[in-house]
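Lab meeting notes turned into a lecture example. A postdoc, R.K., suggested we walk through two folding results consecutively so the class can see how the record format repeats. The first protein's sequence and structure tokens come next.
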Amino acid sequence: MAVRIEKDGSVWTIVHDRPEARNAMDPKSADDLTAAFLEFDADKGAAVAVFHGAGGAFCAGWDLKYVSTLNAAYPLAELDIPTARPRGNGGEIPRGPLGPSRLELDKPVIAAIEGPAVAGGMELGLWCDFRVMAEESYFGVYCRRWGVPLIDGGTVRLPRIVGQGRALEIILTGRKVPAEECLNIGLCEYVVPKGDARAKAEELAREIARFPQVCARADRRSAIKSHGLTIREALIQEWYNGREALIEDGVAGAGRFSGGLGRHGDFVKI
């Protein structure tokens, strides 16, 4: 199978392994990746996922051999998004052309990027909560050359991450964006030696998975859903979203602190 799940307790690594195409996405892989992430989100024992492309490439984008077979007059009509049902939880709307890009999961996903993450592969990287990139890895809208547009969230997520001007320069030129530049402009959060992206992403995933998960997910959800709200609207959302976490996790956690754990910023004994 081109998609597999490797589990280490509450940390799941979801691997796309299609080396003959540098992990370019065909419909079967898109279906299988979407199913894998929905399984992760639904499993009560899973806390954090790592998204990794095997064989030295994160994803070379959409499989253009497949794209060349589409009906040019009305391509991918089956993936149209019904406007009355906007949430992408796997039930209301179809998957994205490259798979999970429309899903709105309730748990974090970390991208572990080696080699190219270009065109649709870049869009999949942007879909993740944050990104760990190997030194030789890179982003780029390489589909600019062929007139294939960004339709997996690239024009939506990239400006939100790096700002509109920088995003438009990257989108319109289609140029290569190396890992170090990505780090400098906030397009990734870590740059590690070649071959170490997955290990670093899994290390971060294990750290996140140690914490009380109702609270972690509540804070993540509020940060994501605050985009576009007024300050007052965002504060209201944060309050009611966070109160559940305070009930479920916070009072008990404060009791552990009162009992002597976690003093002086200790994140080990919690």
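The second example is placed directly after the first for contrast:
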Amino acid sequence: MRLILLALCLLAALPGHAAAPELLSSLDALFDKRVEAASIKELEDTLKKELQAAPEDYELLWRQARLYVWQADGASDSRMKKVLGKQAWDLCDKAVKIAPQRVECRYIGATGIGVYAQAVGVLKTLRDGLEGKFNERLDAAIKINPDFERGSPLLAKGRYHYELPWPKRDLAESAKLFEKVIAKFPENLRAHCYLAETLLADDKAEKAREEILKVKQGSVAYDPAEGLRVQELAKKVEAKIAEELE
């Protein structure tokens, strides 16, 4: 009887069923094709099903959070941004407890807070202490792997310095971080687009125009869905630059 009880205890202590590599590859392939509504629907359905079976699987949790952030980033409705951002944030806080050494949910958790903050506004963000929560997660991601997803943690930090209200805003530090990402990942169109906005805000419209042209003329092959989204965002930035240069 004691042996049976010991065996049961050992089984209970083992980690839950891990998603098969084939499944994870399939999920990533669907995410890569997220410009297609059918791929998004299949990805949502598969993640929901798999997470019901394995709710503590880190690999599934961070991929679900990644999808929420992507959807939040593209949402025009502030309420939807808030909901999706909070869902990503909560999932990542759960996942970090499972794998604290991993970068994915440190970074995605920060971006979840970021899009949530965009939805609720600057005053509520500062009043509720979201700035500290964002930086805590993002700084951890930068420490683990600043090159994750083509320098995305550094990109988020640069955007943070851009988005802050005066007198906390630091355009020089923002540009420095974007340039650091571009030096290593020149194909990253979002880095060029964000740098253009920072340069424009810093009264450097000519340099901003150079960066936005790199977005317009750049290849999206590195990540078609991301590249196309950024090129669409760049149209508004280009219009502001043109207005400034008139």
